[in-house]
């Protein structure tokens, strides 16, 4: 059985990931579960912090002009996609984590960071505490309505889960999971999807390329 791969992340990442899958000769189902949008935020005084933590490229994408005031802070980023977005915004990326937000915070602490600023989504997992002195939401991720026909089209697919929130949302909207295999970016994302799927696999590290590799291995 040559399963299609369902891409559930928001745009513009959805079409980029789907194109990468199609470029490897596989069929992609494009079904964003969420849409992101900017929200108003006040730019804090960069002098009050010694680092900037970014866990999603969406924070860079939606922060807008206010990001320029933070360009002097060294950036700790989760994943190469986030790091690349930060570099394009002329931020100084000093470390790229490959094991999630908590591990990145530990890396920053080991490097001597004591008062980090985290630009985040309104819906997030990392909160202030420890070396994270402040969390400022700069974007929101809102659930999209999904038609019954779109849900039915997921039957027999490998579904890419790129966040815990996406895992929970997929579990919420899919009544019959028995034919769908879940490929998750992390153990937390897999756990959020719950049980009852045809199979569950976790990528070797939390990067889109590794997740696609995992999904393709599950397709046949």
Automatic annotation (TrEMBL):
A single GO molecular-function term is: uroporphyrinogen-III synthase activity
Highest taxon above the source species: Bacteria
Query: Could you tell me which InterPro entries the record lists for this protein?
Result: 4pyrrol_syn_uPrphyn_synt_sf, 4pyrrol_synth_uPrphyn_synth
Q: Name one Pfam family in it.
A: HEM4
Single biological process term from Gene Ontology = tetrapyrrole biosynthetic process
What residue stretches are annotated with the Tetrapyrrole biosynthesis uroporphyrinogen III synthase domain? 18-212
Which CDD domains does this chain map to? HemD
Q: What is this protein called?
A: Uroporphyrinogen-III synthase
């Amino acid at each position: 059985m040559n399963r299609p791969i369902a891409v559930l992340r928001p745009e513009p990442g959805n079409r980029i990931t789907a194109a990468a899958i199609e470029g490897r000769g596989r069929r992609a189902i494009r079904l964003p579960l969420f849409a992101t949008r900017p929200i108003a935020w006040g730019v804090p005084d960069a002098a009050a912090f010694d680092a900037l933590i970014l866990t999603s490229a969406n924070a860079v994408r939606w922060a807008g002009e206010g990001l320029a005031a933070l360009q002097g802070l060294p950036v700790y980023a989760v994943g190469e996609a986030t790091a690349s977005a930060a570099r394009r915004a002329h931020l100084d990326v000093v470390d790229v984590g490959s094991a999630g937000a908590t591990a990145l915070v530990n890396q920053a602490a080991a490097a001597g960071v004591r008062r980090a600023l985290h630009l985040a989504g309104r819906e997030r997992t990392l909160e202030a505490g420890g070396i994270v002195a402040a969390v400022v939401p700069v974007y929101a991720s809102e659930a999209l309505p999904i038609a019954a026909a779109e849900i039915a089209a997921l039957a027999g697919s490998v579904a890419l889960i790129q966040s815990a929130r996406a895992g929970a949302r997929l579990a919420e909207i899919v009544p019959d999971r028995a034919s769908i295999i879940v490929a998750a970016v992390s153990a937390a994302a897999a756990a959020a999807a719950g049980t009852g799927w045809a199979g569950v696999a976790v990528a070797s590290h939390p990067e889109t390329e590794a997740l696609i590799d995992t999904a393709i291995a599950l397709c046949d």
